[in-house]
Structures are given as structure tokens and as C-alpha cells.
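User: Please predict structures.

Assistant: First:
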Amino acid sequence: MKEFAILLNPSSGSKRASKNIKNLQNALLKYEISYDLFISKSEDDLKKLTREKSKTHKYLIAAGGDSTFLIMVNELLKRKIPAIVGLIGLGSSDDIVRDYGFLTLDEACATLKNKSIQQIDIGTIKSSGKILSYFIGQANIGLGVSVNRYVENFKKKHKLWGKSQFIGGLLGMYYAYKKHEVPVLLNIKSKDKEIEKKFILTLFTKIKYWATGIKMAPGANSTDGFLQAVFFTKCGFFRLLKLTLMAKKETHLKEKEVINIVSKKYSVSSIKPFSIQIDGEIIKENDKDKLFTNVEIGVLPKAIKMLK
């Protein structure tokens, strides 16, 4: 039995993962990593592989995008399965692996070879006192949800252009305004503050990056026991674009439309039901976007062991 079980999601990154299997195998060989490769056939199959291989291998490695990591970590935590996990980024956005510093195959394999273990925090989505889901990176309400919906449909309709995260994301932001999906009126409470405003973007995060490499939350930390929150209050479309460009240079946090808070948990409520996107996936219920009027977004300190 090999040390590493690598669970690869071939559909990640518009099937980028399946096209990179040979490159991945070459990188693993280069770093002399002893592994077994398992290619998942579906989300349910990925969950099954997560359960099974956690019993047979010392290290459980997700190879795919942010959503692949989300599925694996949720399966482990919901079933209380102890495991040492690792990540290999083969997705479209890869903001999680970018934050951890192993965006390339060489960086990822060097991390596996090193076998350095760190206990990282995990975000939680709680409703009616019950944890519904966990997330490694971030939770979004408002713009993140709208863009996610648009990009998924865009990929299906436009096979060529759909591969571009930039084009899909930009159009998604435009249509969020055009269809009046933003701003969203929310009441947000942290330990020290209560804010009720119309928000374009509400981001609760354990990682610095958002939307494929934009450094939206430069102070976010995976091990400090807190969630950084970055909110964009009501503004026009072109002002949003400017704020987003400013975030690339980390100069956005002092702008009047931007609110930056650090807390262990946040209570979010609204008269109008809203959806939540976590790590590239909108939370579902019976295959439909789940709607909330009240939710608690928090953090579970040192919840999982990860190669880093």
C-alpha cells in the first residue's frame, strides 16, 4: 500500500484536471512520491473514495479545484473521519492552493514530499443551531452567488469562451446589476458591530484570494481562529470594477464603500431570502439553491490536519 491516496476529479477546471493527469504523474515521479491514483466518476463517488481511502492510506490528497477540496473536507468532517489531507490545484480558480503557496504542480508535489503537517481552521455555515456545511476558503453572499450562477451557465453555453474565468466573471458581475440581484439588504452582526446596509459583496474568508487571484482579504489567516470579512456596500457597476482593480494592488480597504471586520463569527439575516456560495459551490437543498433568512458564519479552529 502506497502512502498517498490521490483522489482526482477529472471534471475540475473545465476538464483541465483530466488533461493534466500525465503532467501530474510526471511531477509525482520527479519528487519520488509513493502514491495510488483514484479518478472519481461523480460527486458521490468522490465522497465514497474519501471514506474508503482514509482507512487505507496515511495521506489523503484532493487533486482538482476548490469545489473538489470542499467536497472532500465536508465528507471527512461531517462523518468525523480523522485524516491528513493535501491539495493539488487543477481547477479554474485555485484560490485555496494559491493562498497556501502551492499553485503549481512542482510546488504541490514539493509540499507532499516535505510532509509538514499543520492544523488549519475551517469555516462553518450554521442554521438553526446546526452546521450545514464546512468551507476551507470563503463564503459569499450577493455578488459571489450571482457570478457563480452566471459562470456555470456561461460554461455550458459557450464551450470556447466558457474556459475564460475573466470573461465569465466580468459578464457575471454585469448581469448581477442588470437583473437587480445586487445590492442585497442584510443585517450583519459580529461580536463588536452590527451593520444593516445594502451590500454588493459580502465575503467571509479564511484565505486572502478571491475570484482567481484578487487579494480581497490580505489579512486573512488559515490558523488564527478568526474569519476576515470584507464587504462592498452599494455602489455603481463601474465603481465596483475600480474597487476590484484596487484589490489587486491591496489598496481597496480604505475606500468609503469597503468595510473590513475580523471576528470569530457573524450572524447574517434578511427579510428577503438569500443564497450562500462557499468555495465555488452554492449551497443546495434538493438540487436547488438553498435560501436563508438567518445564518451564522463562523470558524472551527484547528479542525483538520493538512500538508502545508
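Second:
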Amino acid sequence: MSHHIRRAIRILNMLGTGHALTTSEIAARVTKLEDAKEVSLRQIQRDLRTIGEAGVPLVESREGSSIRWSLPSGARFLQPLSVNPSELLSLHILKGALASFRDTQIQRDVDRLASKLDKIAPGTVFMDEDLVSEVSPGRYATAVSDSALNDIVQAIVDPHWDRVTYRGVNATRAKTFVVSFCRLVNHAGRLYVAAWHPNHKNYITLAADRIDHVERASDITDTLHVFNERKYRSGRFGVYDGEMSNIKLRVDKDAASFFTSRIWHPTQEFKELRNGDVEMTLLAPLSPELISWIVSWADVLTIVTPKKLKTACREKVKSLI
């Protein structure tokens, strides 16, 4: 790249921040960035003339005996998007976390944007699968309908009541009920939506791909619920709710550091025992996901209480074998 072109790009970067600079100020700043000799005022004047001839709308404003150069606010898009190493990693994480939006209108839009972002953060850092999923088989193959997803997003951004037609996993037919959509939840490679159910006066979690239809419930005039994320998370283990219970587990000392370094549930508490084991307590629902989680850690976890949880886990293992 020639010195002339490099200086012109640097001048555009400076003016693209919204500052109005004199020729002397531009020359001083460019000189600091140049590896070669000092940049003269004449060179900067020639660079500014070239930039103007190229169609860039430079603005001249007189301040005393000096002339300041700037770009109109609408032209600040000329400033290149730059990212530091931390922002670059975040960008790759964001790209990897978008897998839940496959086969939706949002994913198509994201694909178009990603092709532009690849010029800033080229390459693929994470696997093509959902970033937040475990490396295991069992990805959900169903897709969320474009119309339902658009309606859900609109309802979250502009809160209101909606009538939703939903196909439950074990239901023989779809049901229609009123909810207020609160947040999208990306869980284990599947897209869910947290919603407030006014009749139950509690949160429910709906699999987005099982929502058949969404229609604004203009006839409902009840006061809208204000989403409380901690309340939502505390009443679940993962995305599943159930009967709330005081749970006490004993973690083997060999796995103590692994368990205590992670947040499994908002209510979790740990207490180190004399032999090096750790006692883990939490107030959580006895949901299928909790039971499956405990069974998966059977080699390092022991259930202390409640008895109902012991029975549920025993029945699950018995059924398996």
C-alpha cells in the first residue's frame, strides 16, 4: 500500500470518529502513526483534496484563522469496524451460539450478516454445532416456524398478551391458552421461550418448535407481569419445573473442586465435610432433568434427602437396566 493511500485511510479513520481537526492536528496525528519521516502540511492538504475528489463529503468549518475538517454525522459509517482480541473472541462465540436459529428467518438474516463479519473475524473457531450443547448425539431436528418466531420476538420487545397454540410432548392434540412471552432460552441445542401464565400465576417454558400459532390477545386487559429472571431460574433445573424440594447431596472429595467451581442452580450452597467430601444443598424441583442429572453423576454423588428423590432415581436406573 502506498504512503498516500495509507495516510488517506488514516485520515478517514480520524474524521470518522466525529472530531473536527485542523490540517496541523491531522499532520501531527498521522506523523505519530507513520514509521517514516514527519508528514508535512502540504502532504495532508493533498490527501484531503484526494479524499474530497473521491466523493467523500468533507466539511470545512472556520475557527478563527484555522480551518477544521470533519465528516457529516451521516458519513461516519466510513470508519472501519475494528475489534480487539477479546472482542474478536466474543464475536466467534456469538457466531457459534446462533445454531439454535437454524432454518428460521433470523438464521437467514444472520447468515447474510456473518458473511460480512467474516471479513473482520475470518474463519471458524468453534464446531458448527450449537456452542452451548454438549458434544453428544441427540440434536433436535425440528425447526421453529418463521411466523411464530417473529411473533414471539415482537411480544418480548413490545410486551403484551398472546394466545398461543401449543403441542405438548405427551398431548394428543394442541391446546390454546394465553401467555405473556418473556425471554428466549437456548438450552441443550433447542430454542425455548419463557412465558408467564396468568391463570397459573407462574412461569412456563415452551419449546419454540412446538408452537403452532401465535395471535395477539387484544381482549385481555390484565396488568402485564414483569419478568424476574432469578425467580424463573430458581423454580427450575434447566428448563423443567416440578415439585420444589430441599435437596441435599454428598459430593465425593475427588469431584469436589469440579462441582464447587460451577453454578448448577441459583440456590446452591456447599459445605466442606471433615473427610474432604462436600455437602451440596439446593431448593429445586424434582424434575426429570434433575433426576437424569443426578443419575449421570452416580459415581460421585450420593443422595442424602429427600427420600422421594432417592426413589425416583432408583426407579430410573431400574427401568434402564
